[in-house]
Specification:
about 425 residues; mainly beta; 4-stranded antiparallel β-sheet; 6 helices; about 10% helix; F-box-assoc_dom_typ3
Amino acid sequence: MEFPPADYMIEDSDGWDYNSPYTFKGSPSATTTKKHGTYWLAEYGFDPVSYPKEEENPWEYPAHFIMKKDMKINDVVKEHVLPLLPAKSLTKFRVVSKEWDKWIASPLLTHQQSFSCQIFSGYFYQDVIMGGDPMFFSLDYSSSGVPTPFLDFLPEQYVKILSSCSGLLLCQGLEKYYVCNPATQDWKMLPLPQYYHGDEPAAVLAFEPSLYNIEAYYHVICAIPMLGQPIIGFEIYSSESNSWSCSSACCTDLENPKLLGGGSYMKGVAYYETKSNEVLAFDVKNEIPAIISLPVLQVGSHGSLTQMEGELCYVTANNECGNVFLIDIYQGMEMSLKRSVSINLGPETSFTQACEVLPCVNSDAVAIHVGNFIYLYHIREQKLVEFITSPCAMDPGNKFLPYINSLAMLHELKEP
């Protein structure tokens, strides 16, 4: 099947307008389709027969596979390097050749990239108090970006970003929830839940792409405080059934059942921060709630739940003196102190006491927001790698959500 030339091949050499870090001229998503299974892959020229037929010699190497000794550097890059790259880089590389254009647009590469590329790309941020539009802040504009950081491809003019997971975002409109991929502009409007979730829902998006399952389903888990009672219930949406269900599990042991809204997900567990010094954890598969006690912070310290090298951590930072900041890293279900690091952010800027830790994902970096800058300190290398001008001044109303630049597919039809 021949693919028509992409729009960006005509207008621009790489599809991105470098006059503005937020503008994209590329073609619409090539991942949305109404077909699944072997017929879906066959449209892109992939042989649905992956194994030899019974009459074939089982000891003979399949003809449609390329043996390692016959592979050229172009084949190695196409098969093994491209799936590791972020979505923006892949979009730019479609101009290399017709073969690369067809391969990058294929659902097989899209699926491989959504699983293999877990590079921390930047932040979506929004003023949740003043109700500002969402924006995207890339750590590297040359490789990671989204076509429309305002998410204006969604059917509602204003949405609030609640959760981010493996390249997908969970957003809230006036009444509806939306799950979308900002890199491909693909989206899904969820059906209305059975219960009222409130204006500040504690909703977490759970999405784990699997290399061996092209139908990568996702869930939305909303923790619901019961009116007038110290009880937290849970309502769960499944993309596989396209419906909500109420969990039989509930939590009654929180010191303060007031949740802060939003949340995060990692390795099968959704996490919600509370008004008290506790985190509510919910095992999605087994529907079991648990409570994690956070360390008592010093006056002036600010902490954040973050993911460091596949482990849930609670990272705090406080200004010791001048440009020197102390970072404490707590880890595990007991949240015991694992490491303390004292870092000097340099003489470029004079600091005040105010600072905050921003959440990270799939990284060994600690992100500290101080004044008008975001500083990234890599724990493994024990050095301050870089500091970046912050898109907004530090303010308690600004919400930062870590983002991975992914081609992950939603697999469901958009509703009109």
